[in-house]
């Protein structure tokens, strides 16, 4: 068996180095996929946790529950103080949906989970009290992309349902 020359060893080392680079890139790709999945899960969990907190607050406070039920259908029937309470909860609830929408746009919330949130958004914004809230606050409080989406897609679907 003959001895390898220095240039042959260099070629072998270059091939091995290239193989290590390819394996490293595969590993990095797998890690990125795992991190992306963790981002999806984290975004979804944040939205759900906040929405549960709001729902529990509303359900455990009889007065707030009544304000929300009345405000959703007839905001004008509420006192100024009650309207303020309705607006605070509506703003928080829509803020969570805004977070979900922006997470979907940024790729950290998948289409399946956004579909659930979108249905909830459509349901809410088709209620008269939320329509009033949106007309008063939508353009000043929420991200321009969400505002355009709601104005162009969500509210149009409400008028078609009636």
From TrEMBL:
TM segment ranges: 12-30
This protein's record includes keyword Transmembrane: yes
Keyword terms: Membrane, Transmembrane, Transmembrane helix
Protein name: DUF4760 domain-containing protein
Organism: Congregibacter variabilis
């Amino acid at each position: 068996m003959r001895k390898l020359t220095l240039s042959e060893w260099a070629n072998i080392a270059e091939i091995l180095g290239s193989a290590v680079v390819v394996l490293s890139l595969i590993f990095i790709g797998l890690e990125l996929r795992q991190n992306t999945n963790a981002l999806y899960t984290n975004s979804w969990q944040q939205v759900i946790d906040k929405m549960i907190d709001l729902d529990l607050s509303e359900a455990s406070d009889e007065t707030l529950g009544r304000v929300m039920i009345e405000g959703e259908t007839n905001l004008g029937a509420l006192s100024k103080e009650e309207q303020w309470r309705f607006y605070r909860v509506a703003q928080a609830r829509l803020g969570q949906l805004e977070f979900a929408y922006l997470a979907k746009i940024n790729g950290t919330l998948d289409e399946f989970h956004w579909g659930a949130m979108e249905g909830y958004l459509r349901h809410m914004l088709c209620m008269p009290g939320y329509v009033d809230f949106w007309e008063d606050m939508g353009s000043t409080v929420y991200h321009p992309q969400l505002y355009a989406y709601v104005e162009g897609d969500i509210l149009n679907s409400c008028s078609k349902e009636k």
